[in-house]
Amino acid sequence: MVMARVEVNSLNIRAHPSPESDAIGSLSRGQIVFVVRVVGDWAEIIWSNGNGGKNRTQNGYVAAEFLTALRQIGGSGDTFTTRRGAEFILSVGDSDLNCREYGQGFEDCEVSLDYSYRSDYNGNDDPSIRIECEVTLSLTDVEGFTQNESRSETATEHGIENSGSIDIDFQLSPYSPIVNARISDVDCEIDDVY
């Protein structure tokens, strides 16, 4: 998956990779999206729709020419080579942002990240893998001020091939209510193999 930035003032998100397809949302200049794959001139993206006061991620299509790739995450994967020479490759899949409302804004937000890994390790033991993910949210308060907050979490898996998810919680301040939240960065890596 590739993280990309929108480079036009307004970019329609389509239900299917066609200009005749229904628009299901729009993006503004500078917004960050995750590109799952490219289909012809179209990029299938994961985006946070913020629909109904709740931030949910969904897939849609945009014209790829209006995006600038920032960096690769998942996909080809973070590669970790052990002392024994085996490679472990991590791929990050879907992300989901859920924010719970309280009063004028959000009380907390939770980001769920799905991941999988595989390895060419062929030893007799069952290795343990520690995966660390850091997520940065762009948070806008009721007065229009935006700030970034980052949190990280780790998970431990066992075996040469597995999948799972990491949930990262953001407790938000009630003193300056947050009214909009979106994922601005995700960084996952294999921290250790033992």
Automatic annotation (TrEMBL):
Domain SH3b: 1-71
InterPro entries on file: SH3-like_bac-type
Coiled-coil region(s): none
PROSITE patterns tied to this protein: SH3B
Top-level taxon of origin: Bacteria
Listed name of the protein: SH3b domain-containing protein
Organism from which the protein derives: Minwuia thermotolerans
